[in-house]
């Protein structure tokens, strides 16, 4: 689960959503998480996570797949449903500028 959490925050950082959080006081929280472990990960394995992002208002959904860099085998997959909260901690829609930015990633 830590691998997926780190991957998600790296994406949030790369997309500049962190700046949005800082300027608005909003948050992105996990409301649902499903992980399927496929194969054991050995200590010191080199891993890669491929992530796709889907919008299903009001949710931003991250779909992760964890692969071995050595043999390309899949070790796990996760679907993480997130929700934006405003500065009063109430759910809000995904910001329009972020939706536009995510559309360009496809």
How far apart are the first and last residues' alpha carbons, in Å? 25 Å
The coarse silhouette is elongated
Work out the strand percent: 35-45%
Total strand segments: 5
Assembly state: single chain
Q: Could you name the CATH homologous superfamily?
A: Hotdog Thioesterase
Output the CATH class name.
Alpha Beta
Count of folded domains: 1
Outline the structure in words:
With 106 residues, the chain is α+β, with helices and mostly antiparallel strands. It has one domain: Roll (Thiol Ester Dehydrase, Chain A). The protein is 27% helix and 42% strand. Strands 1, 2, 3, 4 and 5 form a 5-stranded antiparallel beta sheet that branches. The protein is elongated.
Provide key terms for this protein:
single chain, 106 residues, alpha+beta, Thiol Ester Dehydrase, Chain A, 5-stranded antiparallel beta sheet, 3 helices, 5 strands
Quick summary:
27% of the residues lie in helices and 42% in strands. By secondary structure, it is an alpha+beta fold.
């Amino acid at each position: 689960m830590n691998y997926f959490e780190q991957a998600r925050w790296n994406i949030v950082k790369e997309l500049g959503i962190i700046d949005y959080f800082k300027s608005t006081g909003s948050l992105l929280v996990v409301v649902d998480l499903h992980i399927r472990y496929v194969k054991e990960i050995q200590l010191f394995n080199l891993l890669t996570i491929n992530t796709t992002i889907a919008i299903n208002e009001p949710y931003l959904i991250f779909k992760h797949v964890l692969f071995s860099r050595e043999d390309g085998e899949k070790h796990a997959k996760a679907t993480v449903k997130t929700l934006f909260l405003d500065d009063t901690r109430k759910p809000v829609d995904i910001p329009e500028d972020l939706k536009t930015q995510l559309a360009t990633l496809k």
